[in-house]
Specification:
It is built from 9 helices and 9 strands. With 263 residues, it is α+β, with helices and mostly antiparallel strands. It has 2 domains: 143 residues, Sandwich (Jelly Rolls); 102 residues, Orthogonal Bundle (Arc Repressor Mutant, subunit A), CATH 1.10.10.60. Helix 1 packs antiparallel against helix 2 and helix 4 packs across helix 5. The longest helix is centred in the last third of the chain and has 19 residues. It is globular.
């Protein structure tokens, strides 16, 4: 059974150019934006490519993407963004290796209607949320045949074991020594191989992963305190959590909760 773990929609309106910078933190969820007015250029930081999107088009941002978007209007900028995580390992997950891309559909008016319905109904009540979720599935079924993927970079199988261990045990007090043991390597060898394969040190990757999980809780669990979120994702010290969150996202947890999901 497919179910949603995270589902949120917002409309953004601007009358001046602006930049949204997610080059420092991979998005912890999928994002789709339908542009109503204006246009944008996205810099895909992972591939060093630029993608343009204009009114009537959809931009698809896979989970774990790092990018910078530059928005321009004449004079208005307006778009609806939908953000989601689905509990489905075979289609919309990081395993499928989608790339950041523009999606052009023949019936852009129908696509716009679907986004507007989601925006209007997804916060109303349980029935409205279910109906909005159905529209999300419909959009995904419409765009899936047109989505591009790329071949996944080969990762040392021993490092893959460590990554899997982090993703299943991030709430626990994980040490580099534990990860090295799981990978059947010495500590120094493991450290070097991990950074070579992942582009981050083991501790950096663990902190990034914990912060990504904290972001989903901040957006999905409005009544959960920042301190409880800090503890639930594995940080022993709330002050260290705040420091890491600000370093990675550029904002405090409270600031991110108030205005989190621009594209």
């Amino acid at each position: 059974m497919v179910k949603e773990l995270f589902f949120l929609a917002e409309e953004y309106k601007y009358q001046k150019e602006h930049v949204v910078d997610y080059s420092g933190l991979p998005r912890p969820h999928f994002c789709m934006g339908f542009v109503l007015e204006g246009k944008a250029e996205f810099l895909d930081c992972d591939r060093n490519t630029r993608i343009e999107v204009k009114a009537g088009e959809l931009i698809f941002v896979p989970m774990m993407s790092k990018y910078v978007s530059e928005w321009k209007g004449s004079p208005n900028i307006k778009y609806i963004s939908v953000h989601f995580i689905l509990d489905h390992s075979d289609i919309f997950s990081t395993q499928h290796n989608f790339i950041l891309q523009t999606v052009q559909m023949e019936d852009s008016k129908k696509l716009q209607e679907e986004f507007e319905y989601i925006l209007k109904h997804h916060r109303k009540d349980e029935a409205g949320r279910l109906a909005a979720l159905g529209r999300l599935y419909h959009i995904l079924s419409m765009i899936l045949p047109n989505l591009k993927t790329e071949k996944r970079r080969e990762v040392d199988e021993r490092i893959s074991r460590a990554i899997s261990y982090i993703e299943h045990h991030y709430k626990e007090n994980i040490t580099v020594e534990e990860m090295a043991k799981i990978s059947a390597m010495s500590g120094s060898r493991f450290f070097d191989r991990f950074k070579q394969n992942v582009g981050q040190t083991p501790v950096e990757y663990l902190n990034y992963y914990r912060i990504s999980k904290a972001i989903v809780l901040l957006l999905n669990e409005k009544d959960m305190s920042v301190e409880n979120i800090s503890e639930s994702v594995g940080f022993e010290s709330p002050s260290y959590f705040h420091r890491m969150f600000k370093r990675i996202t550029g904002r405090t947890p409270g600031e991110y909760r108030k205005n989190p999901i621009e594209m």
